[in-house]
């Protein structure tokens, strides 16, 4: 990977913020977009903009071809056997809500179990809370080890023959841990449960093969993988999707409508009511082309090198606490600086052109497990360099010195 050449493809990185060259370390929240994605969306609106599926004119045919071609592109990217198992959504949140609101009611009854972990993003927690309230099912949590990892022995103890759904994030957006999804899936299936995977933080950074994982549902977001905002996808096992009822109704998703009854289209279109996110799908397909040209294995290796370098560099700062294991993590470091609120840390870093995230990262239960109210997080992607980490470390030292004098 030639990182400098890659960086040139991201227009937003070629700027100064507060008088300093931008160091963008917030890709876990949203990634930046390469010129090829921006141009793909622009080209669609300039030349092909039309509604899909129903129009017989040239623009309608072009738009439909681009939209359904993007579905096939996503299917190949995650190795779905057929494109019809890919449902376009607004993102991971919508995809997980679809499973919780459509699939869950058909299988859950009072006393059944839904198994999660305490590290889950709110998007993979609150929908299941609501599903449990509606059905009378019980929420259970796989306990975390002291370093934030999951023990398969604990998975075996938590998942029982009363468990109907296991839903786990592949990669933690706070701890950086990579969860053993394939092994958890095997345990879930052995107990008759389905496996739902939150792939928001994994899909941009590693090669995904839903057939090898053998999961039943897999959710992803385009904006975290160099694609536009407002587009994502849900992969679902065909037999499960075909048994699910839509939760949104209107145009595009219907087969036949009478005054008192209606029937639905086949999957995936029954779950895509109204005018779909056409330009977003076009941009997502372009993002996949971009990532695959660079190579997911290359991206994975680069990020792990960045994480190791950052962990080592930040560990040298006295009073800085890093959360999560040192080994086996993706490219993010979540930390706190003694006696300095993470929002203050982020504000000082921003004054020097360094963008990090501060807060609870939509993981309030995990914050309580860590015994903190908030943390700061630096997250890396394919366009970050060791020099970015060096600037972060130097700025954190100045932040510590500044607040040390202020407190003293």
UniProtKB/TrEMBL annotation:
Gene3D superfamilies: Aspartate Aminotransferase, domain 1, Type I PLP-dependent aspartate aminotransferase-like (Major domain). Pfam families: Aminotran_5 (PF00266). InterPro entries: Aminotrans_V_dom, Aminotrans_V_PyrdxlP_BS, Cys_dSase_SufS, Cysteine_dSase, PyrdxlP-dep_Trfase, PyrdxlP-dep_Trfase_major, PyrdxlP-dep_Trfase_small. It is an enzyme of class 2 (transferase). The lineage of its organism: Bacteria, Bacillati, Bacillota, Bacilli, Bacillales. Catalyzes the removal of elemental sulfur and selenium atoms from L-cysteine, L-cystine, L-selenocysteine, and L-selenocystine to produce L-alanine. PANTHER family: CYSTEINE DESULFURASE, CYSTEINE DESULFURASE 1, CHLOROPLASTIC. It comes from Paenibacillus herberti. Keywords: Pyridoxal phosphate, Transferase. Residues 23-392 form the Aminotransferase class V domain. It comes from the Bacteria. Belongs to the class-V pyridoxal-phosphate-dependent aminotransferase family. Csd subfamily. Its cofactor is pyridoxal 5'-phosphate. GO terms for biological process: cysteine metabolic process. This is Cysteine desulfurase. It catalyses: (sulfur carrier)-H + L-cysteine = (sulfur carrier)-SH + L-alanine. GO terms for molecular function: cysteine desulfurase activity; pyridoxal phosphate binding. Its EC number is 2.8.1.7.
């Amino acid at each position: 990977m030639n990182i400098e050449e890659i960086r040139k493809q991201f227009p937003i990185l070629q700027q100064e913020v507060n008088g300093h060259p931008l160091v963008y370390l917030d890709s876990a929240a949203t990634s930046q977009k390469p010129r090829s994605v921006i141009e793909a969306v622009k080209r669609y609106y300039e030349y092909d903009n039309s509604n899909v599926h129903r129009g017989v004119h040239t623009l309608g045919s072009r738009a439909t071809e681009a939209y359904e071609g993007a579905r096939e592109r996503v299917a190949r990217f995650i190795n779905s056997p057929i494109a019809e198992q890919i449902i376009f959504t607004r993102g991971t949140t919508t995809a997980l809500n679809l499973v919780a609101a459509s699939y869950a009611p058909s299988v859950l009854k009072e006393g059944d179990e839904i198994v999660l972990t305490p590290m889950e993003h709110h998007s993979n927690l609150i929908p299941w809370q609501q599903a449990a309230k509606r059905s009378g099912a019980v929420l259970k949590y796989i306990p975390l080890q002291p370093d934030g990892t999951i023990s398969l022995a604990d998975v075996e103890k938590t998942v029982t023959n009363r468990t109907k759904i296991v839903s786990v994030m592949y990669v933690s957006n706070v701890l950086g841990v990579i969860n053993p999804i394939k092994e958890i899936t095997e345990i879930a299936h052995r107990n008759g449960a389905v496996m739902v995977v939150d792939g928001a933080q994994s899909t941009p950074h590693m090669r995904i093969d839903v057939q090898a994982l053998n999961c039943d549902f897999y959710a992803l977001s385009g904006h975290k993988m160099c694609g536009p905002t407002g587009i994502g996808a849900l992969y679902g096992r065909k037999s499960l999707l075909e048994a699910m009822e839509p939760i949104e109704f209107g145009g595009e998703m219907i087969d036949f409508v009478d005054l008192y009854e209606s029937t639905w289209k086949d999957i995936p279109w029954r779950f895509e009511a109204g005018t779909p996110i056409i330009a977003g799908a076009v941009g997502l397909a372009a993002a996949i082309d971009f990532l695959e040209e660079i190579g997911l294995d290359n991206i994975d290796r680069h990020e792990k090198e960045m994480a190791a370098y950052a962990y080592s560099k930040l560990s040298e700062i006295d009073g800085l606490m890093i959360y999560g294991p040192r080994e086996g993590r993706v490219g993010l470091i979540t930390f706190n600086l003694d006696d300095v609120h993470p929002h203050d840390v982020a504000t000082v870093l921003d004054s020097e052109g360094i963008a990090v995230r501060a807060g609870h990262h939509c993981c309030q239960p995990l914050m309580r497990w860590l015994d903190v109210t908030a943390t700061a997080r630096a997250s890396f992607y394919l366009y970050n360099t060791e020099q970015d980490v060096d600037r972060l470390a130097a700025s954190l030292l100045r932040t510590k010195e500044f607040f040390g004098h202020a407190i003293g």
